[in-house]
Amino acid sequence: MQHQPYSALAWNSDENVAAIAAAGAIAPLVQLLRPGSPDLAQWAAANALWLLAANAKDAVAITAAGAIPLLVPLSLPGSPVIAHMAAVGALRALGADTAEKRAAIAAATTASAAALLREMAGLDIGSGDD
């Protein structure tokens, strides 16, 4: 049997999204975002977290697990192409609902990177910290 990444299991299935979060998968998914993880693993993790972030409770858990500072570098030019768009989507989903999350994104990046994220993801974040 072939194992599918969580992102494939979560696609268009609220029940699967709930099951993934209930199984405690958020923290391991965040760990896969770390530098040194294979590009495909980073993509699958960012994509799954993007889908999970649609649920407010899961978005809080994703943020608490430290995903934002790991997603920021993946969302910028020079990151693995396969992970780039999923990271942008995950940041957009995570940063869309509270000023606190937008501030966390801004704190995890530089002014130039914050400008790119505002443009690419449509995030209303601060200027970053060069």
Q: Give the DSSP E fraction (strand runs of 2 or more residues).
A: under 5%
Mean pLDDT: 77
Structural class label:
mainly alpha
Low-confidence stretches: none
**Sheet with the most strands?**
none
**Helix proportion range:** 55-70%
Q: What is Rg?
A: 14 Å
Q: SSE string, helix = H, strand = E?
A: HHHHHHHHH
The strand count comes to 0
Question: What can you tell me about this protein's structure?
Answer:
With 130 residues, the chain is an all-alpha fold. The protein is built from nine helices and no strands. The radius of gyration is 14 Å and the shape is globular. The protein starts with 5 loop residues before the first helix and ends in a 9-residue tail after the last helix. The mean pLDDT is 77.
Q: Which descriptors would you attach to this protein?
A:
130 residues; mainly alpha; 9 helices; 67% helix; 0% strand
Outline:
The protein is mainly alpha-helical and 130 residues long. The chain has helices at 6-10, 14-22, 26-31, 39-52, 56-64, 67-75, 81-95, 99-107, 111-121.
Please give the structural blueprint:
Layout: H1 6-10, H2 14-22, H3 26-31, H4 39-52, H5 56-64, H6 67-75, H7 81-95, H8 99-107, H9 111-121
